[in-house]
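Field notebook, page 136. I keep forgetting to write these up properly, so this time I am using the form the group agreed on. The chain and the ligand, fe (ii) ion, are recorded exactly as supplied. Prediction of the bound pose follows.
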Amino acid sequence: MAPWIWTDSLSVKIEPIDNQHKKLIIAINALEQAMEDNESKGILTKLIAALKAYTDKHFSYEEEFLIKNSYPDIKEHQIKHREIIDQVLYYEKKLEQEENYLIDFEMLDFLKNWLLSHIMVEDMKYSKFLVDKDLQ
Ligand SMILES: [Fe+2]
């Protein structure tokens, strides 16, 4: 599949967060490429661990930023983040436990769509809140 490309429509108008979203997309593309190239389980495991670590770091940054800016729906947003992390953990565990499990594009698509819809729906909510707040 063609790599996922960041476009302006994904911008939350906060530069460091946009940059982190771009890196997340790169991490997902790297994982997809490795799957397509039939890379070893060891490499896939490393890429998923990297994606999980980066997602964790990004979510922490985002949550701290939202708390600092008094975003009212922070709790709801944190729950959504947790759901995504759980999904990555589930995938990681599956890879670790099932000996013959190597490639699951359905799962990758699921993860991709989930992240994309998170940015487009949930992150856009705080983006709008912060842009409106700044304009006041
Ligand atoms: Fe978020």
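OBSERVATIONS:
- The chain has a mean pLDDT of 88.
- DSSP finds four helices and no strands in the chain.
FOLLOW-UP: compare against the apo run.
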